[in-house]
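thread: overnight batch results

M.L. [08:02]
morning all. the overnight job finished for the chain we discussed friday. pasting input first so we're all looking at the same thing
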Amino acid sequence: MLLTLFGDSNLKIATYNVENLFDLKKDGYEYKEYIPNNFSNWNRKNQHIKIVNIAKVIKGIDADIIAIEEIESKEVLKSLRQELKKQGLYYKYYKIADKKNTTVKVALLSKISFIYAKEISVTSSYKYRNILEVKFKIKGQYLYLFVNHWKAKSGAESKRIISAKVLKNRIDEIGIDKNIILLGDFNSDYEEYIKFKRKRRLNDTGGKTGINHILRSIKQTRKVSKTKLKEGNFYNLWYDVNVKDRYTYVFRGKKEALDNILISQSLLKKKGIFYKERTLEIYKPKYLIKRNKPFRWQMTRKKPHKHKGKGYSDHFAIFASFIIKD
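M.L. [08:03]
and the structure it wrote out:
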């Protein structure tokens, strides 16, 4: 149920990379540490702990709609949904982008019904995860969500641009004037065009990036109210929070904002449905922090790596609120 305030409704939307939430079915696409009932101890006991822990985080966020990255199958998504119901949070509607047997996939849990949910194929290669497109109608307002998980930073920027171009082509088909939210793990910083210049091996595109140049979220000011966007540009909600809080991931001691929520300009106008200023937040209660970074799912350092049966994810979740006018 949407939270109603003075006739208007508040819609909370989140995204969370749950770090390798696998099922217990051996189908040949698993990472070796997640082959069920093998040397790594990925078994029913450890999987149950992982599901309970991830459900605890999602329940704490209590979003109306949450995008999920790094989940293996519909089977384990249903198990997560069932555990959430046990913990008191019921997501009646759900979808996973599972038409292609990528190792991990993107998915969505929602308290609100959607008109449709479909997959956008980035390429036929299993190296690229499909994008999930979901269309909602909420109190007469249409809203499009696109759940993303782009190629990792171990690869060059040209690989992420492939996903960005496919996404942008679909946006152009819908119409840039529509209510559109792009969210998920882009493996890209909100200012990737600046930060990736230091990593020459990533810059194989002449300085162009998927998140900034293709999705047109470049050279923005800090706050929504002060931002003047060119026609067709998306606004990255990271600019609406203090710089020190702009991160979801820590790599070798450095904070990175790999997870993003970008919105079309129609969601900046205070009519119909719109973004509520200063509501982007990182979800990081104390139990999720260990040594100043996310308390990730724990594996032994010594090879062969084994699951310890504790921890959560190597990413923090982020969420934001939107107002739906009555």
